[in-house]
Known about the structure:
The protein has a three-stranded antiparallel beta sheet with strand order 1-2-3. The chain is 66% helix and 11% strand. It is globular, with a radius of gyration of 24 Å. The chain is mainly alpha-helical. It has eleven helices and three strands. α1 runs antiparallel to α2, α1 packs across α6 and α3 (71-96) crosses α6 (131-184). The protein has helices spanning 18-36, 44-66, 71-96, 106-117, 121-128, 131-184, 190-193, 206-217, 228-243, 245-264, 270-294; strands at residues 6-17, 297-309, 315-326. It has one domain.
Amino acid sequence: MSPLPVIPRRFFRxxxxxxxxxxxxxxxxxxxxxxxxxxxxxxxxxxxxxxxIVLFAVFGALWGIQNISSNLxxxxxxxxxxxxxxxxxxREMGSIIHIFFPHWLDPNINSVxxxxxxxxxxxxxxxxxxxWLNELMMFAYVIYGLLIPVxxxxxxxxxxxxxxxxxxxxxxxxxILCYVCYIFFPVAGPSRAxxxxxxxxMDGFLFTSLVExxxxxxxxxxxxxxxxxxxxxxVMLAAVYRxxxxxxxxxxxxxxxxxxxxxxxxxxxxxxxxxxISTALFALxxxxxxxGAFGCRxxxxxxSWRRELTGLFATSNVPAPYLxxxxxxx
Length: 330
């Protein structure tokens, strides 16, 4: 009896999408910078090891997510995974913020804004501060974090996985561009760099208290220019408007309120806001070009072995590792 055809059996498959590749590449670049400029980074060995662990965890998580049969659960897992990895990178930036420049560059921004406005914009906001206004502004500032996954789910519901991937790619590229700016232009922010006695206590209620906790436990000194809050909010607005025009128009006032809240709350300069919006517009322009060049899936790896059937009942396994790499065009 003639032997039956060789049957490839897949035991591992990994698809890297554009957003995944941007994140993975940036973690590798961070590790390389920490090794090369280790004299400027405290605990650089620990950071490099953490990056390696996280990188392997990301690949493992992607493999697990891609094996989820439900498209909805798969998409929700990608949204959660994105939030976790971006938060990890944000925290790491605090350890390398002065890897190139040892001093804060706030005086440069302060001199420009003082010359343009004639006063510090955050000081002017303090003259109109009221507890209810504080609470409204801090609500906008805090709700930003919740809006990121909400908009992601909205994109999935309106345009399925393709719309979600486009949003995640734009979001990832925007955040990474902001992080790159942090190390090349370290700015502490107005609450830390303006003259002594400038920051007055902010009275308010629930959201005002939450912001104070964020300042103490999460905020990154140096993550000011450009404003990631404003950059990501711009991307969210574009995503909502692209999927549903009326919803985008209704969403616009909240995004404008987020812009104002970053200056009102003494987190950012007006320059940071403009820088954040510009960064987002650049990312919104570049991201579709990346996806147009590579499609949703940038690369796909598939590892298999061959099983050769030599008879009706007898089988023999022939070890033959197989690596398939293909570029997928839309």
